[in-house]
Amino acid sequence: MTDTALMPIPGPIDPVPVARPGVSDGITPRADGRVDLIGLPRPRIAELFAEAGLDAKAAKLRAKQVYHWLYHRGVSDFAAMTDIAKTMRPWLAERFVIGRPEVVEAQHSTDGTRKWLLRTADGHDFEMVFIPDADRGTLCVSSQVGCTLNCRFCHTGTMRLVRNLTPGEIVGQVMLARDELGEWPQGNMARQMDVSEEEDAAEYSADGRLLTNIVMMGMGEPLYNFDNVRDALQLVMDGDGLALSKRRITLSTSGVVPMMERCGEEIGVNLAVSLHAVTKAVRDEIVPLNRKYGIEQLLQACADYPGASNARRITFEYVMLKGMNDSDEDARELVRLLRQYDLPAKVNLIPFNPWPGAPYECSTPERVRRFSDIVFEAGISAPVRTPRGRDIDAACGQLKTAAEKKTRAELDRLAEEKQAALQ
Ligand code: SF4
């Protein structure tokens, strides 16, 4: 039977900065003292070039060139920046680096889902997942290592928060995914070595590409790492940067109400809300943040979300838990609430993907279908999300836990095998 006792809420649940020595200014710190440029906007890169000795005009010009190579072309070596003087390139390499998260492990599901266990420069592991569909390819990006929120159906919620990811570590996931999928505009690095002006003006377009959409739905609560998530997504959305439209980016929150308006105003991406329950008692249990920001407050913040409309509906995520939140009454109450707040809504029904020791079971397929039918019949889209990557520990947080159980030697052996396969 499901344990319905209320959980205590460990850790801070307000949006507080997570202190970490060495992290300032959005810069991802490194042991060798060089500055990682990934995650920095163009004006900050210009400032750093000026601090390193270039005059203001040269710093501005070099920052413009380097920014384009970093974010638009995906170059990860200063030597490949062909419009920068050959003598200048070693000067840059001595002082700066172009970082990417380290890949600890990569898994490839039979259904095409790919999952990576990544490591920060200071040794913390987090996850990134790519889910290809017929008409889109979605990258699920992490915002924190661990999480403070302890949603009970979520495996990441069983891990303590280690720290916020920096802007570089967040945008670095998207860049790494483009590396791995071979999807920078005009092809791979080798072709970037000799770039014509016509090629250089190329825009990134979603047509025919694998990675078309981003969801901030990986490890962590993005609105508890607001500044870094905003700064990273601005690089992703910048037409001179990664150039992905804000309409193709969705930020998922478990309901950090005070930050939702700023999210709409300062980032402007689509919003998804982890609703998962329609009564206070059940939501208090499975999304403990509900005890701080209740369902009514949350739905009002959704109604006020800047930019939401019938063309840009808010997604309500609803994980189907057997006997917990999956009754006909729950479905009807969901419809009633969405109508009461006049929300431009779509509902995503997610069959629960259990992990060893999970406190819940997944609803039966018949129950999920019935729930979906009730919501659909009320005129609200409620598709059932097909479980993906079940053969590769794809539930959020599972790969990290599985890797922690492996010995260092096993991980080294896997890394060697991967390297050998690439040669
Ligand atoms: S669902 Fe999201 S916010 Fe909740 S515990 Fe998991 S990672 Fe944290």
Short description, anyone?
The chain has 423 residues and is α/β, with parallel strands linked by helices. Helices cover 35% and strands 14% of the residues. Helix 11 links the parallel strand 12 (314-320) and strand 13.
Task: Tell me about this structure.
This protein has helices spanning 42-51, 56-72, 88-95, 167-181, 189-192, 197-200, 226-237, 257-267, 280-286, 295-303, 328-340, 365-377, 398-405, 408-422; strands spanning 35-36, 96-97, 102-108, 114-119, 125-132, 137-140, 144-145, 163-164, 213-216, 249-253, 270-274, 314-320, 345-351. The N and C termini lie far apart (52 Å). The chain contains 14 helices and 13 strands. Helix 4 runs parallel beside helix 7 (226-237) and helix 11 runs parallel beside helix 12. Strand 9 (213-216), helix 7 (226-237) and strand 10 (249-253) form a beta-alpha-beta unit. It is α/β, with parallel strands linked by helices and 423 residues long. Helices cover 35% and strands 14% of the residues. 42% of the residues are buried. It has a nine-stranded mixed β-sheet, with helices on both faces. A two-stranded parallel ribbon has the order 1-2. Strands 7-8 form a two-stranded antiparallel sheet. Bound molecules: iron/sulfur cluster (SF4). The site of iron/sulfur cluster (SF4) has 12 residues, from loops.
